[in-house]
Specification:
It contains three helices and 63 strands. The protein is mainly β and 928 residues long. Strand 47 (650-658) and strand 48 form a beta hairpin.
Length: 928
């Protein structure tokens, strides 16, 4: 009885469990047409021009499935869940991967779920599975879910890809050849993934060249992963049309049970030699005495023309316009075409040989080994197109009104032509008016400038001869009513100084007592003094000006002359004396030619209360050697001066002058080998450690201190390799922290040591890039689903100067309790699955770069739910109804089971009671 009850209970429990499981599993969406799902592979990230669909054995191959929506949720898309597999097998060799009945599946990725909203799903073939694939072509197909080879329906759609361990690259030394040439083929065999040389162990390789009839022409074995092989082309090609020699390289072997093979092939083209005269062109015309340049290009016609170096080119000049004209042997030359197949030959057309009005011919004959080519072109010699060379000069650089300008013309007609016979002179003003125009047979011309003219004049001469040759030239000059020369003495002043301003007028139209002189003295803001200067009728004079007790920095003195209706002015300035002392010190007492002097400078005012200029312009030189300028805002610092390699040795003077203060300083030093100690050698083992906005430098002392103790180290820093500018000088220490740097910016450093003799050689150059951890990820959002939470976020506003490589996901079941859950790549989403329904989950995300993990994002939380327990397909009314019916049936069965258990327990209790009563009754009956 007990066993029967237990059997019934077990059956009820199994049925309930099965129904509950069915209710929970009927949940996959059906929004897309599975057999129209597209597949796309993620391109490789290899460098060096490797095709995007090549993958190396052992690399993961990833991709995306792209579902085609049915256009709505009702009716269902195709009655199938949107969960697919991706499988890969050998390519069928037909060039396509569509609707193929799979045989011998090599790779398989299972249960790829299409996202209900986007229709996308991602998959991956792990590297542990691809490493056993042989080199060759494969197809990856979209397949039905839970695909079983030979059992499941045919796959839907596919995409082709290739697996290659190695890659052959080769090229020939020329684009085309002629018979008799030796073709050189340069090759490399490298790993597809990283470009490293292939390992020859376990591989065999050879090369083969076939002739145009398909027969083997030349072959050989290759024993290295890089090199060249040569073969000579016989005299069987070079006909039109051009022929080709197919050349092929093979590398074959096995690795880990997989076949490894790589091939390369190229057609080596063989054709005729071609010779083309580029210049002169047909019917070109040159004057006797001109320079003729002959340009010849030598090519191979295969059929595309390729430059052909090394051909012998014979150039001839024929005395006439046909190929039968006699040769002018003095101009026959032989050349060799250069690296791009060109020959250039230039010579003067001697008028005694090349006669005016006659036609000549250039021929070029190119030969190389077994082939010959030629070209020819005529050209003309004629003088009718020649012009005359003309040069116009004037007797002064500028003029006064009422003066005369004298023009002189020098003209050179073409060789053996007549001298100029006619000169046309013209003078125009800047307004375009003509002031003179005259024909003359003389090469000189005089023009009198009007007394009332002031402005710019243009002088022009047009020159002719009896043959009709022609040329011209022009010059411009300015005419003034006069020039007023103004000087001030002294030109620099202190408070209360008296200045003398003198002036003199030079003019041809303003003379004598009719001319008056006025002056103004002004500071930067206003006129402080003005008046009339009585010169007694002379054209020169002076006036005095006393500097105020509180002087302006500058004063400007302007003198104006007025006479005969004309005005001329002139100005001069004076500046306040600010006395300064410039001190300089050289880092060494002597320098070798080619060394760089480091000169420390300091400039201070004699009056401590006097201000320094904002800018300083230093001009400095070793007297007799090149002059240098340097502008800075620093009153103290260093000046660098490189002594030329060819500088004379001996005592020299270094001079520095500052333009804004007038301060000057001199220092004597020696150019040549210094007596006694020398500069230190280069510091050793310079190391850099990047940090957050800084780089820490460490080094060891030079091998030699030059005979004197090291007193300082000089650090140079730049943002590009080579030529780092000076950064700082520090004491005799072996570390330095360079702070305030920009994260993500590479910095380059070199270091020198300095002793009392001077600065030593540069250390080796090192580089470092300051970085810090990223900032926190932005806009973290958690979206709940059925037993899962989907996280999305945005990248931090700063990656800390180093690219973000991954993100770390933290999870907890209460706020602030998150612990590390997972680490993902440089993505912006993550799905946390297998969660408990109704349990709140809390998340934070942190970004990781080369410097480490950054700050955590703000917290986000979500509570996953359980799917409907009964019903039809999830997400549809039918799904919900089926789930509900199943759940009700399960509850009914459980209720029946409970009733049966209750009844059974009652019966068992009654039965036990009856047994106890019977046992109690038996002793009583025995006593009776």
């Amino acid at each position: 009885m007990k066993s029967g009850i237990l059997s019934v209970l077990l059956a009820i429990w199994m049925t309930s469990t099965m129904l509950m499981s069915l209710a929970l599993n009927v949940r996959a969406d059906d929004r897309y047409i599975n057999n129209q799902t597209q597949i796309a592979l993620t391109p490789n990230n290899y460098l060096g021009g490797v095709p995007a669909d090549w993958y190396a054995p052992g690399d993961a191959i990833t991709g995306t499935l792209i579902g085609r929506p049915a256009g709505g949720l009702s009716p269902p898309a195709d009655g199938l869940e949107d969960t697919l597999d991706v499988v890969a097998a050998d390519d069928d060799g037909l060039g396509g991967c569509d609707a193929f009945l799979l045989v011998d599946v090599r790779l398989q990725a299972n249960n790829i779920v299409l996202d209900p909203s986007s229709g996308l799903g991602t998959f991956s073939f792990l590297g542990t599975s691809t490493q056993f694939l042989s080199d060759g072509y494969y197809c990856a197909w979209v397949a039905p879910g839970d695909y079983i080879e030979g059992v499941s329906p045919a796959a839907y759609r596919g995409v082709r890809f290739q697996v290659h361990e190695y890659r052959i690259q080769a090229t020939t030394d020329r684009g085309g050849y002629i018979p008799g040439n030796t073709a050189k083929v340069f090759y490399t065999v490298s790993r597809t993934k990283d470009g490293s040389p292939m390992t020859m162990s376990g591989y065999w390789s050879n090369w083969l060249v076939q002739s145009s009839d398909g027969l083997t022409y030349a072959y050989g074995n290759l024993i290295q992963s890089a090199g060249q092989f040569n073969f000579t082309i016989g005299n069987i090609g070079g006909v039109n049309p051009a022929v080709v020699y197919p050349a092929t390289i093979w590398f074959n072997g096995t690795s880990g049970g997989a076949i490894r093979t790589a091939t390369w092939s190229q057609n080596v083209r063989v054709g005729n030699l071609a010779c083309n005269i580029l210049s002169p062109t047909a019917a070109a015309t040159y004057a006797p005495g001109a320079v003729l340049e002959v340009d010849v290009a030598v090519d191979t016609s295969t059929p595309t023309n390729y430059d052909y170096p090394g051909a012998a080119v014979l150039i001839k000049i024929l005395d006439g316009g046909t190929l039968t004209s006699p040769e002018i042997t003095a101009y026959t030359k032989t050349f060799v075409s250069d690296g791009v197949g060109n020959v250039r030959y230039a010579f003067v057309l001697d008028p005694a040989v090349f006669l005016d009005g006659k036609m000549y011919t250039v021929t070029a004959n190119a030969t190389s080994i077994l082939k010959f080519a030629s070209d020819w072109t005529p050209f003309n010699v004629r003088t009718s197109l020649e012009t005359m060379s003309v040069r116009l000069t004037l007797d002064k650089t500028s003029y006064y009104s009422d003066e005369s300008a004298v023009l002189t013309v020098a003209a050179q007609p073409p060789p053996w032509h007549s001298q100029p016979s006619t000169y046309l002179y013209s003078v125009t003003s800047s307004s375009g008016g003509t002031l003179a125009r005259e024909l003359s047979s003389s090469p000189t011309f005089t023009f009198h400038i009007p007394s009332d003219f002031q402005g710019t004049l243009t002088f022009r001469a047009d020159v002719y001869n009896v043959e009709g040759d022609y040329g011209w030239d022009s010059e411009q000059r300015t005419a003034y009513f006069g020039v007023l020369i103004v000087n001030v003495d002294p030109s620099q002043y202190h408070a209360n100084d008296q200045l003398t301003v003198s002036f003199e007028l030079e003019s041809t139209v303003m003379t004598g007592p009719t001319t008056s002189f006025y002056y103004t003295a002004s500071d930067a803001a206003r006129i402080v003094k003005q008046g009339l200067v009585d010169t007694g009728g002379a054209l020169q004079g002076s006036f005095l000006f006393t500097i105020p007790n509180a002087p302006a920095t500058t004063y400007m003195f302007t003198v104006l002359a007025s006479g005969n209706g004309h005005i001329v002015s002139g100005s001069v300035g004076a500046t306040l004396i600010q006395d300064f002392i410039l001190s300089i010190s050289l880092d060494k007492e002597s320098y070798l030619p080619g060394e760089t002097m480091v000169v420390a400078y300091s400039i201070v005012p004699m009056d401590p209360a006097a201000p320094l200029p904002r800018l300083f312009l230093f001009g400095y030189e070793v007297i007799g050697l090149p002059f240098m300028d340097w502008q800075t805002s620093e009153a103290s610092g260093v000046l660098d001066y490189a002594i030329p390699q060819d500088a004379n040795e001996g005592n020299a003077i270094f001079e520095v002058q500052e333009s804004y203060t007038g301060a000057i300083a001199l220092e004597v030093f020696l150019i040549g080998s210094p007596p006694g100690p020398t500069v230190p050698s280069a510091p050793q083992n310079l190391q850099v450690t990047p940090g957050n906005g800084q780089v820490d430098l460490t080094w060891t002392a030079p091998v030699s201190d030059g005979g004197n103790p090291i007193i300082a180290y000089r650090i140079y820093r730049g943002t590009a390799s080579g030529g780092e500018p000076f950064l700082v000088e520090i004491g005799n220490v072996l570390t330095y922290a360079d702070t305030g740097l920009i994260n993500g910016q590479p910095y380059y450093y070199v270091l020198t040591a300095r002793n009392s003799v001077g600065e030593g050689a540069n250390s080796t150059e090192v580089t470092a890039t300051p970085v810090t951890v990223p900032l926190q990820p932005l806009t973290l959002q958690a979206t709940a689903g059925y037993h899962l939470v989907t996280l999305t976020w945005a990248a931090p506003s700063s990656d800390g100067g180093s690219a973000i490589t991954s993100y770390r996901i933290y999870r907890g079941t209460s706020g602030g309790s998150e612990t590390l859950l997972a680490s993902v790549g440089n993505t912006s989403s993550f799905t946390d699955t297998g969660l408990s329904a109704g349990q709140a989950y809390y998340y934070k995300v942190a970004a990781v770069n080369a410097a480490g993990e950054g700050a955590m994002s703000s917290e986000a939380s979500a509570t996953p739910s359980a799917p409907p327990s009964e019903g039809g397909t999830a997400g549809t009314p039918a799904n919900e109804f089926v789930s509900l019916v199943l759940m009700v049936l399960a509850i009914i069965f459980l209720a029946i089971a409970a009733v049966l258990m209750f009844v059974n327990l009652r019966k068992m209790k009654q039965h036990t009671k009856e047994i106890q009563t019977e046992e109690k009754r038996e002793p009583e009956e025995q006593q009776k």
